[in-house]
Structure formats: structure tokens, C-alpha cells
Structures
1.
Amino acid sequence: MNVLGYLIPIALFLGLLGLAAFLWALKSGQFDDLDGAAHRILFDDDESPE
Amino acid sequence: MAEVTLARRDAFDLPEDSWRGFSDPSAYIRVRADGTAELDLVVENLHCPGCIPKIEGAVKRLPGVLHARVNLSTKRLHLHWRPDAVEPSALLGAVAGQGFRLAPYDPGALASSGADDTKALLRALAVAGFAAGNVMLLSVSVWSGLVSDMGPATRDLFHWVSALIALPAVAFAGQPFFRSALTALRGHRLNMDVPISLAVILASGMSLVETLASGDYVYFDAAVMLLFFLLIGRYLDLRTRGQARSAAENLMLLRAQGASVLTADGERRALPIAEIGPGMRVLVAAGERVPVDGRIARGRSDLDTSLVTGESVPRAAAPGTEIFAGTLNLTSLLEVEVTAVGEGTLLAEIVRLMEAAEQCRARYVRLADRMARIYAPAVHILAAVSFLGWLAFGGLGWQEALLIAVAVLIVTCPCALGLAVPAVQVAAVGRLLRGGVLVKSADGLERLAQVDTVIFDKTGTLTQGWPEPTNLTEIAVADQRLAASMAAASRHPLSRALCRTVGPVGIPETEVREEPGLGLAMILDGREVRLGNREWCGVPTSQSSAVESELWLAVPGRAPVRFAFRDAPRADAARTVAWLKDRGLAVELLSGDREPAAREIARALGIDRWAGERRPADKIARLEVLAADGHKVLMVGDGLNDAPALAAAFASASPAEAADISQTAADFVIQGDGLSPLAEAMRVGVASRRLILQNFALALGYNAIAVPLAMAGLVTPLIAALAMSASSIAVTLNALRLSLARREARL
């Protein structure tokens, strides 16, 4: 059962990492425009002549 | 190629910048510490994702632009640039040049707590999700340990770790519920959040006591899972409402921001609306909306009053004509003497009517809230009865009795109820969006399902809102081409309609002169050819026609030729009306346009009850009569004059081209150029009401089984967790049926 001694902290640490990543994404405004984000991936970054 | 001078757009000197689609932004520019400048803008006609690269591309091409980002959800644009490299007017001009109308705003002044609420809720949701996942991991181990060989020491360790995760998570993620419950209790009311908060706090507290005493059963997993499920429902609900709110905010920001005022010494100055007073002279360029109520002092033009009065035919305006805020100036520059501003204008009057009407509608209580009124007290009573019952007659200590009461609170907790309505709404809103209907208010769907009468406006709702020539077949092709080539020089709606229908024709060799309010003239082979109204072409007024608007073409030496125009019904208007009548709904037409025009459309579409020349207050009066008779009315309209009626009706819809204020008042906005999405909306409305009721039945059915078990003290944390998840998943799956359902063939 000693294995629990480090497995539980590791599991919790990984979970917290995911949580932190989500909170960071939220803070940096990645959830501000869900409608726009869905379409932005389809745009070409290089400026195309119109 | 012959050199062509288009008709001059203005009768007197008009500087270039009054043409742009934006007002002076200088008051809204914020300078950062490093010398760079920032500006936030609302983009009025940002509708499709394709607009994003158009706007951002146009701005980023300019030098000195550091950042430009469009937010499609809120229809706003953020700009960040170096003021020494580029002028703000160049930035805005680049966007306006793409055909977008812009209004600067101050993000600080906009108490946009909505966005913050959503973020706070997402943060709480993330924490609850993390905690639920990890605590469940530990709980499953404990549950399997109870039937296998887990030692008490390991179990205690797992309980302690669970407590360590769950207690901070509950303290953080439970706040939205705790705060709402406190507010309710302070107001001596009960809402759904009171039993939720009680269940979560008691469950965590009792579990901590059990952990300290190394007991077998703890409810940490139930407490965080409860929060997680409920937060999902709450987030879905907030998102549906947030969309409606940001649309309303944009409208507020777009309301006339300023006007060009002519000062006593003949100079032009941009002034905010608040500083304009009666007696001042305001300049209104062609293509602009009139910002004030007033009287025309100088200039002749044509006015599009369709949004104000519902009249489809443009009106000629000359010095002395009364003019209202919200009217669109079509052909040439006008100088207007202000008679009323702000609160005194017709527009403000309409807004007041609308607000008064909206208060009436606020009396509608959502299904979920009606449910909560019965549910919350019932839950409390059941929990109290179990606690006192076991304490008094069951011979248990207060701790065990309280644990049973906690189990009752947990199993009755409205996970399923909290998810039942938002899940259905999200599914319904998504399905309607694909079907071309934007749902603006979440409970609008509930109300739509109960509608028994539909009232349509005419111009722009049942009809397309723009004129089309009707008698081209009777006119010689040469005359058509001649008229269209002249009309190409004009912005008047009738001219444009003519060009659109006749198709591309050669540009005339000579200059076309436009006389605002009258028509066009051109010298052809030494003689003057005219295109315009009766008076302009010298036609006697005896041959009159009430319904149609008309243009005359006068070539010297020949009889003048008449082009008749009509605002044609939308292609699917008749089918939609027939479909509604088939479903047993009463259909009426209430128009602000003249009687004959209203009668003709009503006849063409098979509407039996109709009325013309109805002012906004008349429309509301009709709605009140119907409401007093117990009818539930769906109002469909587009104009400014319909806005109060839209707000007053039991449910309301407006086409996407409608005035902003009408779109704000409406529950639904119909995209595209047809009315048939209305039928889809009614179908989905009825279906979602049925699903919501089914979900309530599912949730209650589950309670009918789980509550007696819990009160009997037979529910362990394992059973509570299973029952809670099962009922939540059941209602969510049931809700998703709405988006899976095959869309019925279009009518």
C-alpha cells in the first residue's frame, strides 16, 4: 500500500495542472468569444488580396 | 469611355468626413502609459464569421497598428495602436470603408458585469469539476474497499484526502449558490438555492464529523458532484441570457452618439446629443439617420420613414417638413432646426412605451421557477421530518439522524431539475440557430409554445421592405434601358430598384442631374429627358393610383411612360400564413402603412383580419384587447413603430433586417429573407415545452423512488451518487433528443 503514498500526490498534481491550465486560458481571454474562435481556425493568416 | 459625373450627393458644401460610418471617436481613446492608444468600438452590422478577417485585415494593413481583434459573440472591436504612426480616423475609415458602421464606447462605463459573472461561474465549474473527478476516484476505491479488504487506516486516509479536496472546493465553487440563498433568506423568501446550499454545507460538515470519528460513510463526493452538475446548468442558462444582454447593450451604445451642428458663424462642429438643444441647426448627410426631431430649414431630399411609420414609399422632404429621429435621409444633405432632443423625441417616446410594455411581460413566471416554488419548501419539510422522526421515534442519536436528513437533502436536490430546463433550452437554441432563428430570450420558447394568435406587421415583415417594378412587361425595352441608365446615378430606392431589375445598362454619355425630392434630368440629343415623380415630368395628377409608388420617364415629344412599383410580399409569406392557420392559430395584420396598401397585402396572403394606419399606441391597444380576452399573442414586426408592440406581446419575433430596437425587444430574430423559420420556431417551441415537462416528470419520478428510501435511512453515499448521476444523465439525454430529432420537411 506504500505505493499510494506517491500515487495519490501525483494524481492530484496532474489534476491541478489541468485545472491551472484551464484557469490560465480563461484569464487570458480564450473563452471571451466562443463563436468567433470556432471560425478563426478557418482563416488564412497571410493576407490574401481581395 | 465617356466621362460621367454622378449626381452630386449634396445640395451645398459637404465635407468628405460626414460620409463615414462612424462618429468622432476622440473622446473614447485611452492612452496607455507607454504612449500607445486603445479604443473599443461596437460594430453595428457584424453578422457573419467572414466579417472577422475583413475588419481585422483592413486595420492590420495600416502602419502602427499593434493589435486589432473582433469579438464575434459581442460584435465589438478592440484596437491598439501607436498614435504617432496612424490617425484614429484612418483606422476607423478603413473599417467603415468595408461597409461597417462603428460606434466607439467606453468599456469602463459599460457595467458589463455579465462577462465577469460568466467567468466566475466557469472558474467555479472548473474547480468543482476537478474536485468531483478526484473525490470520486477516492470514493470508488472506498466503496469497493467496503466489500473487499481495505483496512480502516487506508479508508481514513482516503476520507481525509477527500476532505482536503472537497472542503476548499465547496467553499469556492459553492459561492454562487450561497450568495443567492442568503439574498433570498434576507428577503424572507425561499428559492431553489436554499436547499442546495443547505445540502452542500450539511453534507460537507457531517462528513467532516464522520471522518474525525473514522466512520464508514462520508458524502464529500455527493457534495462536489451536486455543485458540478448544478453549475453546468447554471452556466448554460447564463450563456443563453448573456447573448441577449450584449445585444441590448450594443443597441444602447449605438443610439445616436452625436450630430454635426452648424454654429452661428457657419462652422460645423460635432456635438454629443446631450449638448444639443432646441433651436440649433443640425446637418444630416445623405445615408445618415436623423438624430433629433425637428423641422427642415434648408435642403430637399427623400426620407425613408419605414422604420418610424411602417410606410414603404419614401417621402419627399422640403423646407418646413417635420422630421423625426430615426428617419433615414436618402438623397441629399439636409439642415434641420431642432425642435426636440433626447427624452422629447418620438424615438424616446417609443422607448418609453416599450419599457412600460416590458414590465407587463416580466410578470410571466418561468416554468422552472413555478416548479421551484413548490419544490423548495417540500424538500425542507421532508428533510426536517426525517431528522425529527428518527430522533424522536427511531431511537437514533442526533448525528445519525442528521446523516439521514442529509441523505434526503442530497437525493432530492434538484440536479435533474437544475439541468432539465437549461439543457432543453441549449438544445432548442442550437437547433433553431441552424434553422435560421436567433433566440433572444430563453423563456421566449416557453411562451411561444402557448401562442394562439399571430399578428404581423406589413412593411419589411410580410413584405420584403423594398419596392419592385411591377409593369416592366408593358414598357418598351429601350425605355427601360434609358430609365435604368439614368437611375444608376441616384441613391433613391425606386431608382435602385429599377437598376436592379433591368440589369446592367450602359452609362449615359452626359451628366445626370438630380433634383432632390423630384427626380433626375439628362440632356439627350439636345433635349432634356426627365425621370422622376409626376410633378417633375409634368404629368397631370388626375391619373392617380393609391397603392403603388411610381416613377415617370418623360422624353420630349412623347407621352410620358409610367413605371409602377410595389413592395412585394415575401416569397414564403402566403405559405407561412397558411401553415399558421392550419394549426388553428388566428392571424391578423396590423400595419402603420395606409389602409389600401394593408388591404391589398391582407387579400393577397389570405389574412381575414387587418387594419392600416395603426400608430404604436394603437397596436398596443389591440394587443391589450386580445390579452384581456385570454389570447396569447405572437407579434411579428420589424419597424421602430412595432417595437412597443413587440415588447408588449406575449411573445415576439422580428426579421434580421429590422430596426435594432425592434430586434432588442423581440424574443426571436429570423435570419434570411423568408418567414418560414417562424414555423420551425413554433415547432421547436412546442417540442421543448413538452421535453421540459417530460424532464420534470422524470426528475419527480426519480424522487418518488429515492426519497422514501432516503427517509428510511437506506441510502448510502454510493446509492446517492448513482441515483444523482443517473437522473442527471437521463434528463440531459432526453433534452438532446431535441437536436437529434430529424428536422421536419420545410413547409
2.
Amino acid sequence: MSDLLIKNVRLIDPSHHLDQVSDIQILKGKIAAIETAGSISSNENTRQLDANNLIAIPGIVDCCARLREPGLEHKATIHSEAIAATHAGITTLCCPPDTDPVIDEPAVVELINRKTSNTGHSHIVTLGALTSGLNGLHLSEMHALQQAGCVGLSNARRPIKNSLILKRAFAYAATFDMRVFIEPDEHSLSKGGCAHEGKIATRLGLKGIPVSAETIAIGRALELIAETGVSAHFGRLSSAAGVEMIKRAKNEHLNITTDVSAHQLHLTEQDISSFNSSCHVIPPLRSQRDMEALQKAVADNTIDAICSDHQPHDIDAKQAPFASTESGISALETMLPLCLRLYQNSLLDLPAIIKKITHAPANILGIDAGTLAIGAAADICIFDEGEDWQLSEDLMNSSGKNTPFLGWNFQGRVKHTVVDGQLLFSD
Amino acid sequence: MVNKATKPTDNLIGRDAWNIQLDNNGHLKHFLTTEGLGTDILTQILDTAESFADINEKSVKKVPLLRGKTIVNLFFEASTRTRTTFELAAKRLSADVLNINISTSATSKGETLLDTLQNIQAMHCDMFVVRHSDSGAAHYIANNVAPNISVINAGDGSHAHPTQAMLDMFTIRRNKGANFGNLRVAIVGDILHSRVARSQIHALNNLNTGEVRVIAPKTLLPVDIENMGVNVFHDLHTGIKNADVVIMLRLQKERMQGALLPSEQEYFKLYGLTEEKLQAAKSDVIVMHPGPINRGVEIDSTVADGKHSVILDQVSYGIAVRMAVMTMTLGREKVAGDNTGDNK
């Protein structure tokens, strides 16, 4: 069943610096051969997919997506979001630990894994909680979480106020070579805020979140990373100043990686100026200058990966005055199109942008994905680079329709998705 | 001193937010913010208020302009003075008035704002006067009510309080004449949390006021406030120098928490308005305050009750201004060429 021959496709695999029109042979769910187009002869039992004029890339790896299960199944489920991911060409999702119950014990990991395999769509990996119940006080059983399959540890956006506890959590994680995933946020500065502290928040009378909420958290973490030697990932950067600190730390060869959400590369504080709650995100959309610095950091590799920061909501979550709405964007469906826009706007070339959503995040998560090497799992996203389309609610497969990109015109659309050699989606 | 000029792009900020205030013919449908409203509309509000100010001084204070209309005062936040003046304004226009205090009813039972709105809407009313603790609440409600309903913002979070700002403009115009271009207006106090200040700043700038100043310690000023077209001062004496109008803002007691200020005493010493400090302003300066006053915190009693004070005038003008806004929004169908009545 999982044998497939994809013919005449432009294959872009940044993990091998490959960009050529090829045939891809898949046997038993793995990449068996990649040859120049027309050179692999098919046997009649093998399913064929003629992908002439289409682009094949390794299946997209999204290093941060909230699936809402367990805990908030009225917003979305593993089933609904895994299917939405497949349709969006995302074959691996990484789920942060702030579920309910929190991913702080193996049973929760097992629950998610079981639901994932029952769904039979995109893969889901998990981050374990850095502190028990994400309470910021007690270490979680990190080794047990590692054994259960967690690819890293995180306290999500929950605060660890005590720096000694943070240091010990880093040190304990380093004991098992586990990477810590940090969403930099100094809680005392961001608490109650819902918009970038700047001219728009001032006009709208919204409580601001200053850039220092991000930079102070980055600064503290960097010092403790240096002292403990833990490998660390900074996720969802939002500010020029934050990027600058990361850049300096990378120059000092600190073992760190970073990501930014796709929407932070396209939206600014200006987009909330009509109290548009679909643009209520945390960290907040910041100034034009911040957005441009983030784009530049993606181009110069200060930022390694781009994620969706997917946060699907039910309709009610966004039906309130701005500050009282829940934050987050349903973002799986726009992840690839928004990234392609960076290429279309000449910010970086196609292989470079593809790397940010395949090979780079797979390396960060330490998983066998994001590559189409011989023998690798056949997770493939095939898209039509030239197809024009407009995002509308009825095109969205995610349970969450909360996105500011409704009505946007995009170029480039997913046509087929292969997971473990199985063609799970064809448009 | 900060350059007052704003970049052309800044005029676009919030455009969508204020767009919904006008119907297809450019008439006022909702009154949510003074931001983005032209001199023409603001002047029309003041002129209309002028005609009602006389009615309020007669022994029979009622006109039948809004007979048969139902106005709902929807207050999600406690208020006596503002609600009362809205109620009086509506009654003097012969409208039926319903007061609903939501903080003590529906939402505490778990009903969402939208549910509450739809329920009241089903009673076939014509206008919501809304106060809510969330910035943007009035916009949200205006975007979600039936197309025939007008919404007046009676204060939303720290965002806007446009009728208060317009009664302040009315007070200034009555005392200083219609040419705002000659005036220097200083607003003193907690700008950070003040919806009144924001609405005043937009109104003053849209009426082409000569100079608008804000005076406060840095903890009570929002970032980039210069961007709204004001000059910023931290010293009261310098800030009110040669001012024609001084507007004092109320200082909430809870500002002593959260390290915004050390004490009321120090605040009064630095920013409290006394007879002596007022000497720096022009000799015919008027002193205003949206109320309620904290005597001895932001203003000395001798000033509040003194010859420069127009604080009680503000309260009585409040009724005329609210009558003006109500007739302008609800009376639109009488205007020739406007048959649509909404902009959806």
C-alpha cells in the first residue's frame, strides 16, 4: 500500500542541497530512490503520481502548534488538527505542554500518541513540562518524559519567577541532553497586556506589553544557558531587540536556536488598530521596525525556523471587546502560503525558506524528519507554486477559523501530502 | 519639546475603527470616539448642543424630537453622573429610557456580552448608550448590533469617552470663542488610564487647537503619546505657562498600588493645582475637571470653587451635548438623501 512513484516533480530538499526535477520512488513508506525525471521505471503494482510542474519538499515540520487536546476539545481535537495539518502539507507537529492535564507525566504523552495514531494523519511530537504542572516551582520527571518520547522540555508561557529554579531546571534537563524550549516572557511586565506597548496601544487605550518583557526573559535565560550548558531554543521571537540579543549570543557560540511565527513576519501593531481581535496574539504584533528586523533575521539565519504558532479557537473566544478575547491565530493553513510570500517578496530564495520549515525545525526537535534522504520516512509535501487562491473559512480544515488572513490572496497551494509513504491528501 | 507634527500615515491609524461611526452619507450613525471625525461634524455637534442649551434653561425643558424612540442605557461599569445626564438628555427629547446595569445582572450569570445585546435588541430599541471597562467595547457592540440601532460610547476602558470630550469642547467654546486655533490647552494628570484625555486630545486636534499639552509624571503617560499630537511636560509650572485652558484629570486612589506613584501628598505637591500654581497660566484661564473631584489630591478647593473654575458648567452642558448627539444619530432619517440609515 505504501509504495508510490512520484514522477517529474521539482524536488527541493535543503537537507541535501537538492533542487532538480526528479522521480521519487517510495517503498514500504520510505524513500527508496531519487533519480532524474524519467529514469525510474514503474512496475504496474505501484501507484503513480505525475507531479509535472509541481514542487515536492520534505513534509513541513511545525515546531509549535496547539491542538487543544487534551483539555479544550470544544476548540479543536488532535483528530481535527492532524487532518488540517495534512491538508496544509505539515506532516509533523510539535505540541507544547500547556494542555489540560499538562504534559508532565508519561500517561499524557501516551494519550496524545494513541489519539495521533488512531487519526492516522500527520505525526505529532510533544514537549514535556519543564516544571511539574508548569507551576514554576518543582522539576518535572524529565527522564520519564524523555523515555515516553518527549522531544524537549518547556514551560510554555507560564512563568518561572525564581531564577534559581530556572537554573536548576536547565541543569537537570542538560543532564539528559534534553533541549529546553523557551517562550521568552517576563510575566510581571506582560501580565494583563494585550498589545505592543506603542503608539497604537496608546491610542486604543489597550494595556501594552513592552519589548522588555521579551528581552529581560531572553537575557536571564541566556546567562543560565551559559552557566548550565543546556541546549536551548527560543520560540516566537517578536522584537528587533530580542533578535539582536540572540544574534550576539550566537556569535559567542552559545548552543541556541530560534523560531518566529509566520504571522509575525507579515503583520504589525497597525493591524489591531480597528480593535481587530483576530490579530490579538501573544507575543503581540509589534512595530514595523520589529517586523522588518524579524524578516531580516530569518534571512541571515539568526532565526533558524518558522513555525505556525497555531492556536485554534471556538467562535466565542474572539467574540468580545479586544482585551477580553483569547489570543492566538488558527495558523496551520497559512503557514506555507505565508512563507512562500517571503520568497515572492524576494526576502530569500525558495530552498532557504523551505529549510526554515523542514530541515531546520526537524534538527531543533531532534527528530528524523524534514529530509528526503534515501531510507528516510516518506513524508512529502507537494505544492503548486503558481496557483492563486483566496483564504476563506470554508477552505479551512482546522476547527478554528480565527485568522486575520481571511480574504488574503495567496500564491502557492498544497496539492498532495504523503505521510509515511501514504498519499493522505490530494487536491 | 516634542514636535507636534504627525506623519501623514498616522492619520490612517484606526481608520477602520472610526469609519463605522458614519453612515453612507457621512452622517453620524454611532458616536464612539472623537478620533477621525472632521471639524465639520464636531462643530455640528457643538452647534446643535448650543440650541439645546437654551431649552435646558427654560422652565419646560422638554422637546418632542425623539418621541417614540427607545434609548437603553447599558452600563457595564458603575456610573452615576454620566448615566444621569444621558437619562435626562433622553427624557428631555421625549424618548423612552431604560437603564440596565449589567455589572449586577446578566454577565455575572455567565451570559456573554453578545447574548446580552441580542436579548435587549429583541425589545426593539433604537439606541444603546454603553459604558464598559474594556477598551473597544463600544466598537464591538456597534459592529454587532442590528443595523437600525445607534450606539453612543459613554466610556470604554482607557480608550474613549467622546461625549465628555465634546461637553468639554462646548465649555471651552462658550468661554473662549469658536476659534480653537488661538488656544493653548493643558491636560494634567493620569493620561495613561484616561479615556477622557484621549478623547479630548483627538477632539482638540480635530478642532485645530493651537497647542495641546499633557502634563504628568512619566509613570502616568502612555508611550508614544506625542504621536497623538501633543506636547509633553513633566513640570506643572512650565506646562501650564500661558495656558488658556487647564483640564485636571481625576487621580484614582488605586494608582498608589503598582508603584505608579509614591503618595497622594507627593502627587499633590507636584501636580495638584493651587491658586499659586495657576498664576503661571493666562489671567483669564479656565479650569476644568471631568469629575468627580478629589479635593486636595489633584486640585485645591480654592481653585475648584474659584473664579476660574467652570467645573459645574461642564456638568450642565453635558446634557445639551448628549441631546445633540442623540438627535444627530437618531434623527438621521429626517435628513434629505439619507434613506439607508446604516452602513452595513
